[in-house]
Every structure is written in structure tokens, then in C-alpha cells.
Specification:
The chain is built from one helix and 29 strands. With 337 residues, the chain is mainly beta. The longest helix has 6 residues.
């Protein structure tokens, strides 16, 4: 799932004259998150249809103007088209006196590949928290509403590292960013096409090219104050859809969401080429490296970080170890393992 503001996040800021107040304010159009999916098959982008959206456990319904019509959520969401595919815009604030923890938005959609009808399901977490006058929140965001997918060969995307303090934007000149990537479970400097380290810019915007992404990239932004003190960090996945070899996750459940203590997510990946053929030489040759959002390694209940395996089970306890952030799963395929 993609979002024009990176990971959607909002803080409840208390009660005002007209009700709950929140930051960023999603009643302001420039602040509103737009959420959509990028679906690919054999290096070709798929335009999906019959988009069905669920907010937590409520299946959303919409009127002719595209606005949601569910009781208690009237006008909160709007169906629209973004980047040529169905999308959802959040029109109202979600953080409130009664909602100060994370929400989940699900998408179920239809598509056709090779004349065969199929459906896909995915989800995105909407970060919701209580007011914090002294908490930093960093966010890697796509520039130009393109998302985090490099769609074509010899192409690139631009990303921006934005910082909030107490829900309000921090001026670019008041912080710095160290750009890093995850390689074999370790955080190392992000390198450019020539192998040199990527330096931050005055507007904290950098370019990510195909050559910098090996099918998938876990991109980290480490936010620091002008004295070099670390403030917070963020991670975002970047996909190179033009890569001739890609890892299919084959996650069960497909939305990779764990809610209850006995829930699990099982990855049984394979490597496929640009024609969709499974490369059997990679069978049982995957390592699964778990970490928190700061890059700190986590040993899972089922540890397949050192010995190659065919699958990986993620438990609720694994997710709890990464709290308060998300669990990061890096899957490494190597036919020499």
C-alpha cells in the first residue's frame, strides 16, 4: 500500500470549540493522506478495479459524490482516482478523545492477469496517538505523489524526510538526516550509483535510482538536531518493479496483519523472473532477518536468520519486541546459500 505522505500519522490535540482537534489537520486539503495500491505482474503495472475499503472492522460505503456514508463516518473518506488507480483520501481527522491508538485501513480489489480474474487484499496502518508536546515523528515521503515504486528501467523516484515535533512541522533548516539502508540485517550508509555515500540535502530530498535498489530496499532516515543528537528515525520500503528478478512474499494472510495474540503471518517466498517463472535454484535458500524500526536486530520465535529456510512464521510476540514501532522483515535470497 502507498500513501502520499509516507506513513499516515496523526495526534489527538485535545478538545476545541468545535470538537476534537488533531495534528496534522486532515481537514486541510494539503495535509490529507491519499492511499492506494501498486499491483504488478511480470514487471507490468496492473490497474485494479472493484476497490472495496474497510476501516478497522467497518466496510465503507460511498455515495455518488465518492464520500463515505457509514454512520459516524459520513464524509470521513472519499473514493477517488490517484496515479491512474482507485484510491482513498482521508477527509476528516481520525484522532479524537475516543480514538488515540492505531487504525487499519484494508483494500480488497479485483484485477485480471493473462485473462484470469483474481483479487488482492492489502492494508496500511494509520498511526494515531495522544497529544505529545515534546515528541518527534519522522516520515519518509514520496515527492510528487508517486509512491515508493520505481516503475521503469533507467528511472528513479525522489523522497523527502519530513519531521514533526508535537504534531507540527519542523523547518528544514532545523534538522539533518542520515540516509541508510538495511543489508543482511545491518544498517549501512545508503550508496548512490557510483558507490559513494548519499549525502543529505538542504531540503532533505534525495533521488533513488534503479541501481540503488536490488528488487527491494529498506530505506532509513535518521533524524538529528543541528548538534548531531539523534531525534527519531523512519523506515520505508522502496520497490524496483523493473528488476528482472523479484521476491514474491506469498504471505498468509496476504495483508500481513497480526491483531490477536495467537495470530501469525507466514512467508513462503519464491524468486520469479520477468516472465513470472519461478527460479527453482532459490528454493529453500532464504534468510529472514527481523529488526525494529531503528534497525536493532530481533530474534524471532522461529529464527531463520542464519540458516537458510523455505519459510518464516512471524508471531505476535515477535511484533511486540519491535514495539512501539513496526516489525521489519528483510528477506534475503541467494542461490549460493
Amino acid at each position: 500500500m502507498e500513501c502520499n505522505v509516507g506513513d499516515p500519522y496523526q495526534e489527538y490535540r485535545g478538545e476545541g470549540a468545535s470538537g476534537s482537534t488533531a495534528a496534522p489537520d486532515w481537514t486541510v486539503d494539503n495535509n490529507r493522506p491519499i492511499i492506494w495500491a501498486e499491483v504488478y505482474s511480470n514487471m507490468q503495472r496492473i490497474v485494479y478495479t472493484d476497490d472495496q475499503w474497510t476501516y478497522n472492522v467497518t466496510k465503507l460505503t460511498f455515495g455518488g459524490d465518492g464520500l463515505s456514508t457509514n454512520p459516524g463516518l459520513v464524509g470521513t473518506f472519499k473514493r477517488m482516482t490517484h496515479q491512474g488507480v482507485p484510491a482513498l483520501k482521508i477527509m476528516k481527522n481520525l484522532a479524537s478523545k475516543d480514538n488515540q491508538d492505531n487504525d487499519i485501513l484494508y483494500l480488497d480489489c479485483a484485477f485480471k492477469v493473462g485473462g484470469i480474474d483474481d483479487r488482492a487484499r492489502s492494508s496500511i496502518t494509520i498511526g494515531i496517538s495522544r497529544a505529545s508536546s515534546d515528541v518527534y515523528k519522522g516520515s519518509i515521503q514520496p515527492v510528487g505523489n508517486t509512491g515508493f515504486v520505481i516503475r521503469e528501467a533507467n528511472s528513479s523516484i525522489n523522497v523527502y524526510a519530513g519531521l514533526l515535533f508535537g504534531g507540527a512541522k519542523v523547518a528544514n533548516e532545523n534538522y539533518a538526516v542520515d540516509w541508510k539502508k538495511q543489508v543482511n540485517g545491518q544498517l549501512v550508509p545508503l550508496t548512490n550509483d557510483d558507490g559513494g555515500n548519499v549525502a543529505d540535502t538542504s531540503n532533505h530530498t534525495i533521488r533513488i535510482t534503479n541501481a540503488m535498489v536490488n528488487s527491494a530496499l529498506n530505506l532509513y532516515a535518521i533524524f538529528k538536531d543541528k548538534a548531531g543528537k539523534e531525534l527519531t528515525s523512519d523506515i520505508q520500503g522502496v520497490i524496483d518493479a523493473s528488476d528482472p528478478l523479484v521476491i514474491r512474499l506469498n504471505a498468509v494472510p496476504a495483508d500481513e496483519v497480526i491483531i490477536n495474540d495467537d495470530d501469525t503471518v507466514v512467508y513462503t517466498p519464491n524468486v520469479v523472473d520477468s516472465d513470472g517463472n519461478i527460479k527453482t535454484e532459490f528454493a529453500n535458500k532464504f534468510k529472514f532477518l527481523l529488526s525494529d524500526e531503528k534497525g536493532k536486530p530481533i530474534v524471532g520465535a522461529y529464527d531463520n536468520s542464519k540458516v537458510p529456510a523455505a519459510s518464516q512464521t512471524i508471531t505476535a510476540a515477535d511484533v511486540d519486541k519491535a514495539s512501539p514501532g513496526a516489525l521489519v522483515v528483510e528477506i534475503v535470497a541467494d542461490d549460493t546459500f
